[in-house]
Each structure stands twice: as structure tokens, then as C-alpha cells.
Amino acid sequence: xxxxxxxxxLGRIPRISPGEVQVYLENLAREKGFLETIFNAxxxxxxxxxxQGKVLYLNRSACAFxxxxxxxxxxxxxxxxxxxxxxEAVSGATATISxxxxxxxxxxxxxxxxxxxxxxxxxxxxxxxxxxxxxxxRDITETxxxxxxxxxxxxxxxxxxxxxxxxxxxxxxxNSLDIHLQLMKRCMKKLxxxxxxxxxxxxxxxxxxxxxxxxxxxxxLRAIRPQPLKLDVENLNCLVQESVAFLQVEISxxxxxxxxxxxxTLLKLRVDRNQLxxxxxxxxxxxxxxxxxxxxxxxxxxxxxxxxxxIFSDTGPGIPAENMSHIFAPYFTTRESGSGLGLxxxxxILQAHGxxxxxxxxxxxxxxxxxxxxxxxxxxxxxxxxxPRSGLKRETT
Length: 397
Ligand SMILES: Nc1ncnc2c1ncn2[C@@H]1O[C@H](COP(=O)(O)OP(=O)(O)OP(=O)(O)O)[C@@H](O)[C@H]1O
Ligand SMILES: [Mg+2]
Fold this sequence. Notes:
By secondary structure, the protein is of the alpha+beta class. Helix content is about 45%, strand content about 25%.
């Protein structure tokens, strides 16, 4: 309702009948109630302040964003609600101000707000005069989180690419270093024995270190370089059995029992057999290495609504809670001779197949690694739609 209209109305009040006043007031109350319903229904927070920044109105969303009650907040300074807001700049502003706000209580959120000056005509000159401010708040938590996740993923792929480039470039000088060390070793044969023995020892150490560096870079490149999948229809149970058979020597050298619980359904999937077996080896080896004093490794295969799964459960010491968030990171290892790339390769292979890796660990009891692969061969699935036995809907005539 415009100020001018209200002024006119007030001027006429002595001349209008009590009945008419009642009708005007009822209309005003109805209009206020209608506007309040709309403001309370919208997701954006709305706060209206007077020219000093004292809160005159705030809707339900604004109360929810800041965890405050409407009644207790009316008349307080908006700076007490939106901590950090430059109240002086905001309350005197005749242009729109915008910014972002982090709220920690009652829920961690990010809000975008803009402050709109509320102007109205005043006096005979009908000059525009500042009445107060309207503050509109929008929840941008989800957008901000997604942006943050995108930035982090881009940063990590840029770093991986850079590291891959460096690792690749290191390969050539390493090769040349090794060739020169071999030449040096050959030339040393002409030297007196005592000197030759000493130099050969140093060259041996240098060659060993060069070989180690070469192995690190080769392993790193193999781990991060996506290899194209050679897909074929394979039986998942056979791949598990082949992987266990391949590691038989390692198994018999340890006090470890491998139990297979293979799903009875023929699990045929379109997969790259070599890459998938590589993933199985890495997981099985981790289990062996964890069960230093022996134990049981149970390997279970099966299929659920949308995926085929292989679960590897060991009876080792488990993974401490503080390590759980690092185990897929490159070079994270707790083993002296570990490269820390095994699980990263598992994840890459499973993701390339459209699958995923899950790890559950109970400290002192063991680890379960769950590999899930989509059943691409089984392309359709009957949904349960009311007729539980057949999955078919009964037609009613
Ligand atoms: N079954 C398991 N039980 C206990 N800890 C495990 C298990 N599997 C993985 N881990 C932990 O996760 C870490 C990372 O495993 P990952 O396979 O990536 O590297 P790694 O085994 O240390 O080295 P490598 O690259 O040679 O495989 C391990 O060092 C170990 O601490
Ligand atoms: Mg490993």
C-alpha cells in the first residue's frame, strides 16, 4: 500500500463513517495476511528493516536460516542476526548491495544476500525518500559445494597430468644415466684392483638407485594412465578362480586359507578380463600382506538388483579409522615396501567399468573390500509393480 494512499486515507478518516473504517481495516488486514502467506511460502529469506537497521519484518525462511524466532527478533538490529554485515553502509545505502554469508548455526550454510533500499514518495514535492531496507537471502550451499568439488577435481587432475608429464620426462635421462654407468663399469676394468673395487661399489649403488627411480616412475605411469578396455563377455566366477590360482604359490607360502563362496547364478559380464584380474590381485595381495600371522580370506561373488559383486573379507588387523580417508590416495602406504598405488589402480579399473569400490573395516577384526560391477549383459529388469510374484501388473477390466 502506497504511503500517499495511506496519507489520503488518514486525512479522510474524520469524514468517513465507522462502518466504512471497519471495511478499510478489514481489507488492509486481509491484504497483510495474504502477503504474509506468500512471504512465508517462499524459499528465499526476507528481512525488512527501518532506516536504522532495526528489523521490522522477517519471514519463515529467514528465521530458519538463522535459527531465530520472529517475535524475539523484531526490533533488534539486523547486524545482530547477520554478523559481519557493515550496518552503516547497508542502512544508509540507496543502491543495491550484494554479498555472500557463511552461517554456522543451526546448520552450516552459505547464503547469498542482496540489500534493496526501500524508497517512497514524501512531502508535497513527492521526493523519493529512504524508508528502510529489504534484505533477500538465498541458500547457495549446494551450488557452492558443487563448485568446490569441481575445483578440487580439476586441481587434482591438473596435478596428476603434471606429475605424469614429469614422470615421463624423467624416464629418458634415467635411461641415459644407466647406459653411462654401464660404460663406466666397463672402463673400470682397466683400473688397478683396489681402486676398481671401490668404484664398482659406488657405481653399483648408483645403478640400483637409478633402477629404483625407474620402477617408481613406471609404476606411477601405469597406475594413472587410463588403459582402453578390451571388453568381452566373461564369467566373473572364472576370473576369481583364475586370480586365486595365479596367486597359489604366494598363498601356500603363508598360513592363509582362501574360502570361495561363488554365486550360483552364472555371472556373465562384459569386462576387460586382464584389468579386472589385476584389480583382484591387488585386493588379494593387500589381504595377504595384512594377515602377517595367517588368517582366512573369504571371497564371495553374487548379483543383486543392478550389480554383480565380489567381496573380499580378510581376518587381518583392519584399517585404523584415521587411515580410511587416505587409502585410495596415490602413494599412501603403511607397508615398508609398498608403493601405495594398489588401491588407486583398483578404483581406476572399477570406475572404467562403470563400477565402484567400497571398503569396510573393523579394527582388530578385518577388512571387506566390495567391488561392484554393473550387469551390462542383463540389459532389462522387470520392476516390482504391485504383483510381487511375477512383477507384472494385473490388468483390470
Ligand atoms: N586388507 C587390508 N587390511 C589392512 N590394511 C589394508 C588392506 N588393504 C589396504 N590396506 C591399507 O591401505 C594401504 C594402501 O593400500 P594400497 O594397495 O593402495 O598400497 P600398498 O599395498 O601399501 O602398496 P602397493 O602399491 O604395493 O599395493 C596399505 O598400505 C594398507 O595400510
Ligand atoms: Mg597393495
